[in-house]
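fyi for ur records
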Amino acid sequence: MKVKVKVEKKKPKEVVTAKICPHCRGTNLYYEGGYIFGQKYHCTDCHYRGPFVLERKVEVDEDESVKEL
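which gave:
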């Protein structure tokens, strides 16, 4: 007797780069611009403004859970 097994294909996990504030380690940053002066980011948590931000690669699963690499 043969048994049929249904195999579900999993989607590959998506790897994205998250920008992190250097002061409070928050991720609520947005790009403020800076044509002449270069890049400038603004953190809405601690109100940091500056060109320096940290970047981390994270994996995003189907259920939108985030895991650091």
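Residues 14-63 form one domain. thats all i got for now
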